[in-house]
Each structure stands twice: as structure tokens, then as C-alpha cells.
Amino acid sequence: MAAGLSVDLDRWRREFDELMLRVGGRFARVEPRRRMAAFVLGLLAGLPRVNCWSIAEHAGEEHPRGMQRLLSAAVWDEAGVRDDLRGYVLEHFADPGAVLVVDETGDLKKGTMTVGTQRQYTGTAGRTENAQVAVYLAYAAPAGSAFIDRALYLPRSWTSDPGRCQAAGIPGGTAFATKPALAEEMIGRALDAGIPAGWVAADEVYGQDPKLRAELARRGLGYVLAVAKSHPVTTQAGTFPAAELARRLPARAWQRISAGPGATGPRWYDWALIDVTDPAVASGDGPHWLPIRRRISDGEYVFYRAHAPRPVPLAQLVKVAGSRWKVEVDHCWDWSRHVALSWLCSLFRGGLLFRPCPAGAAVEARRACPAFA
């Protein structure tokens, strides 16, 4: 192994140990504290299958009971771990113009016992499946991005059945909350904790919600939130579906702008911007727009509700919209009881601890060590 690569791996391990030490105080006993570190290393190890059996074997344990207990019964403060990790992210990435990115992902299930499972749409499959869905909040800044909060979506089929909730260990009195409401709660928690941010980006589920848009504007945040083509938009000429407004635009209204780097280079699209109003948001909070993205290859449209406390150029709104792609929800978690460990995984999987190193060194380290796979 090259000397430089060895130094990088040694530094990675030191940083990993320091982060484990930071969150270690959130665990009541030393055994789950140590097992937590082994569990995270197992999530990062690129195992063919990720479950308590495979992670336990990777840690040198003879059976999975310890890992299972960590997720189901061990005493530790998951909210405290969340706060510790959020602080760690800010130490590396804090920026007043950062984007809070709301995204959701689903975990396909075969049974019905796992908390929150029902037949519902999930982007993981691209269709309605028996799945569990969670909403995530990520912090995207010029220096990097990482997850900082999460919430499990509990469908009404669960919250309306107290017996089922009790059997699954869900706290009594847990009420139904929509995905936008969960997002609003997480964003509010982040802002109340002093997180510097200027924008919010999210998909159609969140852009369609007037209460969320109003709360973001009240908080002084700008946002670029996707909406459906049928979404009604009010202009000086009247109220029309977003798709109809796009069809009415002249050729000169479009300009080609990159939404940021992609896997094969810049993501070029044609963009247009229409001044609109939003009845959901108090007047005087700043301008509102309908940014429209048109795919070059086939002309497919994507529409957004956008707002800022003060006027900004279209290129800025495009940059915010593009920040959603910086957040890849490809991390591992188990919703048996806790999900905070997934953020530990996402921090290391995302290369956060390699920020001071050249990008090439991080790539070489990932190739040389299974923990980076």
C-alpha cells in the first residue's frame, strides 16, 4: 500500500473513532456503544447482504442477537445522536446559503408487521408496493452534503389502530402526520437549533402543500419545490395549469442552463421563468416564480414553485433545484426502532471525513478498503 494512502486510511480511522467517541455518551452502557461502532462499520463494508447476521459476522460475532438488541432494545438517546451528528456536519459544511433538501425513500417489505408498512407509492420501486417510507432532511452546501434528520411516515392505517401501534412499540397518542408536515417539523427543528441555511428544495409531494410553503416563507427561507403539471398557478393573466403556461411561452423565453454536475458531466436543460403569485403565502414576503425545466432530448417539462425574500436570477433558482441531486438516498438503515445510525453511515459513505484530502486520494482509499465500498 502506498505511504500516502496508508496515511489517508489512518486519518479516516482516527476521525471515525473521534466521531464514535462524540456520540458514545448517548449510550447507557459500554457494550452497545462498542457494538454501535461495529454496526456502522458493517453498514459501510459493502457486504453482499446487509442484515444483523451479516453485520455480526463481519464484526466477528457468532450470532446476530447483539446487533438485533442494539436496534430493538438497547438503551440509547437517538435524538441526542441526531443532534451530535448535525453539529458534526455543521463543523465541516456550515454555509448561510446552504440548501435544506427534503427527500423520501422506501424500503420494500414482504410482511405487514414492520412499523409503517402498507401498500403505498415509493420511488424506490417507482410504483405502489408494500413498503415502509421515511422522510429525510439533508444539508447541502458548497463544501458537501449529509443527512441531518429523519422521520418515519406512519400511514392512517397505523395511527387509526391503537392496538397495532402498541404491539409495534409506537408511543401512545402518536397522531397521523402528512409527509409535508414531517418535513416542516424537521426544518423547524434544524432552524431552531441555529442551522444556517437560505433555501429548501423538495419534490412534488412537498411543493403541492400550501401550509409548508407559507411556513418556509414565514421563516425567511427561499425555496424551489417541484409541483405537478396540473398544479394551478396564478399570474396577472389569470390562473392556469402549469403545463398550459409552459405551452404558451415563446421561444425567446427559454435559456439553456446547467443544473449542476451529473455522472457524465453538466446537466443541461432549457429553463424559463414566469412571475406568479401564491395565495398561500402572505403578500410582502418576497417575489414568487414558476421556474420551468424542459429536457433537451424530448421536451419533457418539470415545474417548480419558487420564492425568495428578495429578487434572485434564474440561475440561482436552477442551482437550488439541482441541489436535490447532490443528496443520494443510498444509505442503509433499519427502522426496527432507530435510524440515527444511518446518518453515521451516510457521513462516511459520503466522504465527509475526506474533505481536506484531494478527491483522488478519497477514490483510491475507497478502492483499497472495503469499508469505503
Keyword list:
373 residues; alpha+beta; ten-stranded mixed β-sheet; two-stranded antiparallel ribbon; 14 helices; 38% helix; 24% strand; disordered C terminus
Brief description of this entry?
The protein is an alpha+beta fold. The protein has 14 helices and twelve strands.
Word description of this protein:
By secondary structure, the chain is α+β, with helices and mostly antiparallel strands. Among the domains are: 1-76 and 344-373, no CATH class; 219-325, no CATH class. Helix content is 38%, strand content 24%. It has 14 helices and 12 strands. Strands 1, 2, 3, 4, 5, 6, 9, 10, 11 and 12 form a 10-stranded mixed β-sheet that branches. Strand 11 (288-294) and strand 12 (301-307) form a beta hairpin. Helix 1 (3-24) packs across helix 14 and helix 2 (30-43) crosses helix 3. The radius of gyration is 22 Å and the shape is globular. The relative contact order is 0.15. Mean pLDDT is 85; it is low at 329-339 and 350-373.
